[in-house]
Design brief:
alpha+beta, D-Maltodextrin-Binding Protein, domain 2, 2 domains, 7-stranded mixed beta sheet, 5-stranded mixed beta sheet, 7 helices, 14 strands
């Protein structure tokens, strides 16, 4: 697939995301809370909306790129093992927000070629903002070019994070990190959607994002968009095992300062 074909594919995927976003928005108006399911404990929720949205995405993406596999949160689609192209999908990132009527949730779609992300789309449904990028190109929001913040001081920064549901053995270390950032920044926001957090870092609304216990479908698209917008993404050690390693720092000019705070607290001897 050459770059022109990838750009054309991006347009088709954006159109598909718009269709699925309309479905989710319509369902949000009369959501049936009795149909909530619990996947792994009372904090990890899923609904018929997640499942139906994922089915719509997988069916549409399969038509656009027949020789592709899927890594999707709800398990829809065929395995991507041994396939050159893999779609990494979260049909409704921010499910808990959605179920409580809190307007902060998004569709996240990434495409990997031989395990390298080459396309990312995060469609924030309530503001109808589509953040998108393909390899070798800048990042955009609704076709307007975006870039990460140029603020280079933590003291002037606004950060985003999330609170994990699992691996609570690291909870105290994580809270120590949060405490330091609360003392040294303009504040920390917990929006409830990693995909939106990353999109907002990409467009400069926040200077950085950090979280652990993440899944690839939470962050694949957003992390790629941050990179295409001029930002840096790493794991908590400063390495590149952020997509499947479960931990991430994504930021503009303050990435190194964030890493210098997170690393010693997380990797205590």
């Amino acid at each position: 697939m050459n770059n022109n074909q990838l750009v054309n594919l991006e347009k088709e995927v954006i159109s598909l995301c718009l269709e699925v976003a309309a479905f989710i928005r319509n369902e949000a108006q009369a959501f049936d809370r009795s149909r909530i399911e619990f996947k792994h404990g009372f904090n990890n929720l899923v609904s018929y909306v997640d499942k139906e949205a994922e089915l719509k995405l997988v069916q549409g993406l399969k038509k656009l790129l027949p020789q592709s596999g899927f890594l999707a949160e709800e398990g829809t689609g065929i395995s991507s093992e041994q396939m050159e192209y893999e779609w990494i999908i979260d049909p409704l990132d921010g499910t808990t927000n959605f179920m409580h009527g809190l307007p902060m949730f998004a569709i996240s779609v990434a495409l990997a070629r031989n395990k390298q992300i080459i396309l990312g789309i995060v469609h924030e449904i309530n503001r109808d903002e589509c953040f998108h990028a393909v390899e070798h190109q800048p990042a955009y929001c609704n076709n307007q070019r975006i870039a990460v913040s140029t603020i280079s001081s933590l003291q002037e920064s606004l950060l985003a994070t999330g609170f994990p549901y699992y691996h609570l053995d690291k909870r105290d270390d994580y809270l120590e990190i949060i405490k330091v950032f609360l003392e040294q920044t303009h504040g920390i926001r917990r929006l409830g959607s990693a995909a939106v957090d990353l999109a907002y870092v990409a467009c400069g609304r926040m200077e950085g994002f950090f979280e652990y216990n993440l899944n690839a479908w939470d962050v694949a698209a957003g992390a790629f968009i941050v990179q295409q917008a001029g930002g840096k993404v790493s794991d908590f050690s400063g390495g590149d095992n952020y997509l499947y390693g479960g931990q991430m720092i994504a930021a503009g000019a303050v990435h190194q300062q964030m890493l210098e705070i997170i690393h010693p607290h997380w990797y205590k001897k």
